[in-house]
């Protein structure tokens, strides 16, 4: 295994470059895709790429379906009358249409496929937790739960956070051609708990009757709690952009090191994904000092519009010859701890790369082989290109502070970024070794590995990339 020179490692462990760039990004505020803040964020990233020593730095614009947040309101009636309208209680989910609908509230617990199958949602408002049970085997994404609610005939979708702190979650609802078919909002854990308490009896995890508490999975249809969901939003065309630059020889074969620079409009987007983007710049800076050791071209890309459809990644994937891409290492939600977690999409060679690096450094590594259609590497993985999402181990279920008002700079530590920069830079250095092979598997190979839950989500959202 190739190692970084000691002087480069020493540089990394005293660096403040990434932290200073991160401060400039979070101070932008709203970096929602297609809006002014994303453009300003791209300008900061381009400047950082130039300072890192990358060549041919470019800002590449492309068109997207943009989304602008309006007001959101949820009113309950029947067994309990209350109005929730504050942004610490309820917010719209990106891609939601404007709408004002009402129906009985049906809580489907974790929102597993079997939870939706066990209730009658026709004409109802479906509510699901942001949590995935520890023993489920894969992450249940918000978009899958929304798609299941649509498929079940719900008139609206309520996504309740499982993290306390009056933090309603945001996040897109995944329809390729915006807007989605039914209104969708996120509510805080506290609002969700109150709604559940007044919604009637629930089913516990074993299928028996529960008391409607947080540990229960779903409530019966005989509830007498109705809710009205009133959402205002604007969906219209906008412009996003990618920022890219390169190191190494001019080979056709290329290693992609990527992140996304956009963030949701309700917070600073420090962890998701400011930290990932500034680490891309820092890895570039470190590798620029050993550029002559790179045997493959390395392309660094900060994508726009990840949070509303992976649009920047798809734009880049359409520009490059995918047959030349050795692998994609995508940094997303990295920085919450100094221990890496790698989602490998069942590419054994990528997993082996990170196992070698972390073993040599005596660093713990978490791996997950699930083939997931979420985060930017999917635009390449769906075509069979080896790709992984590189994150930080959190020890928690779900996003934590991510996608809430609390995704702020104070949750991060520069010491974690320093340690991660050495790990990732070493991995990229070894990925750029011309003798290291990353076997591709083709479109059909990936299609066969996609879980049926993800397949259903993508098909309902008109995002299934494979012909029938």
Strands, count:
17
Give Rg in angstroms: 22 Å
- Which of globular, elongated, flat, extended, rod-shaped describes the shape? globular
CATH class category label of the largest domain? Alpha Beta
CATH topology of the largest domain: Aminopeptidase
In angstroms, what separates the terminal alpha carbons?
Answer: 43 Å
CATH architecture of the largest domain: 3-Layer(aba) Sandwich
Helix and strand sequence: HHHEEEEHEHEEHEEEEEHEHEEHEHEHHH
| SS element count, helices | 13
- Supply the number of structural domains: 2
Spans where pLDDT lies below 50 across 5 or more residues: 202-221
Task: Give the fraction of residues assigned to helices.
Answer: 25-40%
Under CATH, the homologous superfamily of the largest domain reads Zn peptidases
Strand content: 15-25%
Q: Characterize the main sheet.
A: 14 strands, mixed
Mean pLDDT: 93
Structural class: alpha/beta
Question: Can you walk me through this structure?
Answer:
The structure is a single chain. The chain has 468 residues and is α/β, with parallel strands linked by helices. It folds into 2 domains: 6-66 and 236-452, Zn peptidases (Aminopeptidase); 70-233, Glucose Oxidase, domain 1 (3-Layer(bba) Sandwich). 29% of the residues lie in helices and 25% in strands. The chain contains 13 helices and 17 strands. The protein has helices spanning 6-12, 17-26, 36-52, 113-117, 142-151, 189-197, 270-288, 311-319, 348-361, 378-381, 414-431, 442-447, 452-460; strands at residues 55-78, 82-84, 90-92, 99-107, 125-129, 156-160, 184-187, 202-203, 209-210, 218-219, 225-247, 254-260, 297-303, 325-331, 340-343, 366-368, 387-392. Strands 1, 2, 3, 4, 5, 6, 7, 11, 12, 13, 14, 15, 16 and 17 form a 14-stranded mixed sheet that branches. A 3-stranded antiparallel sheet has the order 9-8-10, with no helix packed on it. Helix 4 (113-117) links the parallel strand 4 and strand 5 (125-129). The radius of gyration is 22 Å and the shape is globular. It starts with 5 loop residues before the first helix and ends in an 8-residue tail after the last helix. The model is unreliable at 202-221 (pLDDT under 50).
């Amino acid at each position: 295994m190739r190692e970084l020179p000691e002087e480069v490692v020493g540089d990394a462990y005293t660096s403040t470059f990434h932290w200073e760039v991160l401060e400039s990004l979070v101070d932008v505020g709203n970096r929602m895709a297609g809006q002014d803040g994303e453009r300003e964020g791209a300008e900061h990233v381009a400047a950082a790429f130039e300072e890192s020593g990358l060549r041919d730095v470019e800002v590449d614009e492309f068109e997207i379906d943009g989304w602008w947040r309006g007001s959101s309101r949820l009113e309950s009636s029947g067994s309990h009358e209350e109005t929730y309208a504050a942004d610490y209680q309820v917010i719209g989910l990106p891609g939601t249409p404007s709408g004002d609908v009402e129906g009985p509230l049906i809580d489907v617990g974790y929102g597993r496929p079997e939870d939706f199958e066990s209730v009658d949602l026709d004409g109802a408002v479906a509510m699901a937790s942001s949590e995935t049970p520890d023993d489920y085997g894969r992450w249940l994404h918000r978009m899958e739960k929304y798609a299941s609610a649509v498929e079940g005939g719900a008139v609206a979708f309520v996504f309740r956070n499982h993290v306390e702190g009056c933090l309603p979650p945001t996040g897109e609802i995944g329809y390729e051609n915006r807007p989605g078919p039914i209104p969708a909002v996120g509510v805080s854990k506290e609002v969700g708990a109150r709604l559940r308490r007044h919604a009637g009896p629930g089913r516990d995890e074993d299928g028996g009757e529960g008391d409607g508490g947080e540990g229960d999975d779903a409530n019966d249809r005989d509830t007498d709690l109705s809710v009205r969901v009133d959402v205002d939003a604007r969906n219209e065309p906008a412009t996003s952009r990618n920022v890219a630059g390169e190191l190494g020889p001019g080979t056709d074969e290329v290693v992609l090191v990527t992140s996304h620079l956009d963030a949701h409009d309700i917070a600073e987007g420090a962890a998701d994904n400011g930290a990932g983007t500034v680490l891309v710049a820092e890895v570039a800076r470190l590798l620029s000092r050993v550029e002559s050791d790179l045997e493959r071209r390395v392309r660094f890309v900060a994508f726009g519009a990840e949070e509303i459809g992976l649009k920047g990644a798809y734009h880049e994937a359409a520009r490059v010859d995918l047959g030349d891409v050795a692998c994609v290492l995508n940094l997303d939600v990295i920085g919450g701890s100094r221990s890496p977690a790698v989602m490998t999409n069942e590419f054994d060679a990528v997993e082996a790369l990170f196992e070698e690096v972390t073993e040599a450094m005596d660093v713990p590594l978490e791996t997950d082989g699930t083939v997931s259609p979420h985060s930017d590497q999917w635009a390449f993985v769906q075509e069979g290109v080896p790709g992984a999402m590189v994150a930080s181990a959190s020890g928690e279920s779900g996003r934590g502070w991510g996608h809430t008002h609390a995704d702020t700079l104070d949750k991060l530590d520069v010491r974690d970024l320093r340690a991660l920069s050495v790990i990732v830079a070493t991995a990229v250095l070894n990925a750029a070794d011309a003798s290291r092979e990353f076997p591709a598997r083709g479109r059909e190979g990936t299609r066969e590995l996609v879980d049926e839950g993800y397949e259903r989500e993508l098909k309902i959202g008109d995002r299934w990339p494979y012909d029938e």
